[in-house]
Amino acid sequence: MNLKFKGLGVAMVTPFDERGNIDFGSLSNLVEHLIIGNANYIVLLGTTAESVVLSDFEKNELVRSVVEQVKGRLPLVMGVGGNNTSAIIDTLKTFNFAGIDGILSVTPYYNKPTQKGLELHYKAIAEQTNLPIILYNVPGRTGVNMTAETTLKLANEVINVVAVKEASGNLNQQSYILRDRPEDFLVLSGDDGLAMPQMAMGFDGVISVVGNAYPKLFSRLIELAQEGNLAEAQKIHLKLIEIIDNLFVEGNPAGVKAVLSMMGIVKNVLRLPLAPVSDRTYTKLEQLIKGI
Questions:
Q1: Measuring CA to CA, how many Å separate 105 from each of 29, 131, 180?
Q2: Cα distance between residue 180 and residue 250, in whole Å
Q3: What is the DSSP code (8-state) at residue 208?
Q4: Class of the 3-241 domain?
Q5: What is the CA 23 to chain-centroid distance, rounded?
Q6: Predicted local distance difference test score (pLDDT) of residue 214
Q7: Domain ranges in the chain?
Q8: What are the residues whose beta carbons fall under 8 Å from the beta carbon of 116, sequence distance 6 or more?
Q9: Residues 6+ apart with CB under 8 A from 55
Q10: Distances (CA, A) of 15 to 2, 29, 70, 235
Q11: DSSP 8-class letter at 87
């Protein structure tokens, strides 16, 4: 079992300064916040990191900064995905992956490939790296759902496909993956609001957005669920559910960056085409965090 990817993984935001450049001081503060908060691993350059608006140079600078700071204190996963298979392969061949423990690769978006296309896409990627690969199924963003059959085929046939981040919201589909998966294949939640009931179903952890702000509380929820103490896990779930819902009303990571700015960890700055949340949502989030 790939234990390093169990528990709480945090899809870390990319802090920017007032001029829109990466704010490495805030980045350092956030990394320590996550380590102290008992995150089990950090995911860099995922959707929450606004990775599609970062240059290759910025991605390299960010990764090298975090690797140097973490110094092996917890595993690091890097987002390496997109809708151009050959471009992903080029990245796998040229990027410096020193200090990276695995990659998270989202299903190709916009192109809307068939299930066979998804299978061949991931097999082509897997041939170019020895790093463990976490599949990422998020049809609400990509426009294509990777079925349980395709996920299981990859899990059984590709040795370094070790997990799936499942954000389809389809509990029936996820149940089939849980039932038929290989023994050492992890199933991870991609929905903070569903993480607790999914853990009760048999999920192995979550790659979280709210974990940026509340790593200690959310990691405790996951720990309790892993231990089978669902009653106590449920209390934390119900405590967090309204703030989780409001983090996403104006898109991700706008909500969680607003909360992190209230905490003094990062600035409330995003890159276009994303924009900070409205005053109304900001005020609502401000009210909600007082109750946490």
A1: 26, 12, 22
A2: 36
A3: E
A4: alpha beta
A5: 20
A6: 98
A7: 3-241
A8: none
A9: none
A10: 30, 10, 17, 31
A11: H
**pLDDT of amino acid 3:** 77
pLDDT at 53: 97
Which two tokens mark 27?
Answer: 């980045």
The encoded tokens of residue 91 equal 């990245």
Amino acid at 39: A
Specify the pTM: 0.96
What type of residue sits at position 108? P
Cβ proximity of 193 and 162 under 8 Å:
no
Instruction: For residue range 125-169, list pLDDT tens digits in order.
Output: 999 999 999 999 999 999 999 999 999 999 999 999 999 999 999
> How many CB atoms within 10 Å of residue 6?
19
Bridge pairing between strands 7-11 and 205-208: parallel
> Could you tell me where the DSSP H helices lie in the chain?
24-36, 56-70, 85-94, 115-126, 139-142, 148-157, 171-180, 195-201, 215-226, 230-247, 254-262, 279-289
- Active-site positions? 136, 165
Sequence length of the chain is 292
- What percent of the chain lies above the pLDDT cut of 90? 98
CB 10 within 8 A of CB 38: no
- How many CB atoms within 10 Å of residue 264? 9
Contact predicate 53/147, CB 8 Å: no
Q: What amino acid occupies position 174?
A: Q
Residue type, 225: A
Stretches in the chain below the pLDDT threshold 70:
1
Three-class DSSP category at 266? coil
